[in-house]
Amino acid sequence: MLEQLVLSVSHFGKKFMIEFSIFKQSFAKRKDLIARANQPETNFKLGSSETTREAFIYLCEKNENFRFDDFLAQLPSHVKTEKCSSNFLTWFIGFVEAEGYFASRYDHEKNLEEIPIIQWQVDPEKKRVQFQIAQKDPQVLYKIRTTLGFGRVTSFKKQNGNVYYKYYTSTKANILRLIHLFNGNFILKKRQVQFEKLLANVEQIWELSIPLKPWNAKPSLDNAWLSGFSEGDAGFYTNLGNNFYRGKYADGRSRYGFFLKFYITQDNAESTLLQIRDLFKATNKLYLIHKGSTLKEYQRLEIANAKSRRLVIDYFNRFPLLSKEKRISFIRWERIHGYQQRGELLTEKSAKKLKTLLLSLEESIS
Fold first, then answer.
1. What is the pLDDT of residue 233?
2. Domain spanning 233-364: which CATH class is it, in words?
3. Residues 21, 26, 30, CA angle at the centre, nearest 5°?
4. pTM of the model
5. Which of 234, 315, 319, 363 is the most exposed, having the fewest neighbouring CB atoms within 10 Å of its CB?
C-alpha cells in the first residue's frame, strides 16, 4: 500500500500550489466579519472576541458537521488563517483517514520497508507521541508543513537505497493541535476507534483530560474530504495503457474504444463507500477483492456510469487533488470521458496518436 501511494505523488511539481480560501465572496452580509477575521495580526484565540467566535461559527456552518474551532484557537501565531482554510483541513483529514495507522509504541528500529504512509506512534515509557507522514516526494509534505505552520520535513533511506521523505512532529503542543483537529472529525469507523484509543493513551501519559467529541461528519460533495481521501487507494482507470483496444469484432477486425471508471478501495469501510456511491448517484454494488498475496479482504467501489462520472469530474474540479501524478491521471480521465461522450471513433492509428498526446500531458502540467 505504501508503494501505491508513493507512486501517486512521485512527480509532484515544485511550482504546483493550490491555495484555498476560507470564505466565499458571495456572502456579502459577512463581508466585514470576514475582513476582520482574516487580519494577519488576529491570533484566533477562542473567546478572545465576539468577532473571533462568530468567525468560528461561520467556518463550521460552511463545513456541515466538521468542527475546527478548538484547532483554530491553537494555531501558531505566524499562520495565516486564510491558508489554513476549511478546504485544506477537510482535505487533510481525508488524506489521513485514507492511509492512517496508529501504533502503540515508538520504535526507532522498525523496518523502514514496513513504515505506513501515515502513522501515530506512542511511547508510554518516554511519554512521547509522534505523528508522521512518509512518502517518496516531499512537495505535498512541504505544503502540509507550511499550511499547518508546524512540523519538519526530512529525508531518509529505505533498505533498498531509495530516498523517501517524512513530515513529522513530536512536540507536545503540535500533537495536541492535531488531536484537536481530528477529534470528532473522522468519518471512517475504524479511524474513530483508533483515535479513541490514541486519545486515551495521550491522556494517560500526559495526565490530561480531553473530552471526546461526537463523530458527526459524513462524506459530502461540498468539502474537500473526499479529495484528500482519494489521494490514498483511489484511482482513475482508463484503457489508455493498451491503446484503447476493446477486443475484436465478429469478423476478426480489432475494435477500439474508450473504457473508464473511478474507483476507491478500502478495508472495513463499506458504509462510507456506499455513502460515496450515493453521492455520485451510482447504483452498483461493492466488490470484494484481495490485494497481493494476502487473504485480507477489501471493498472496492467502481463508478463507470457516464452521468455519475460527470459528477465525479465536477467534484474534483471544485476540490482538486494535490499530488501531481494523481492530478494528471484525473485530467487524462476527464479528457477521455469527453472523447467518449462526443462519440469520437478510433482506429488503430488514431488510438496510438491519442495515447501519445495524452501521455504528453505530464510535461505540460506543473
1. 85
2. alpha beta
3. 85
4. 0.79
5. 363
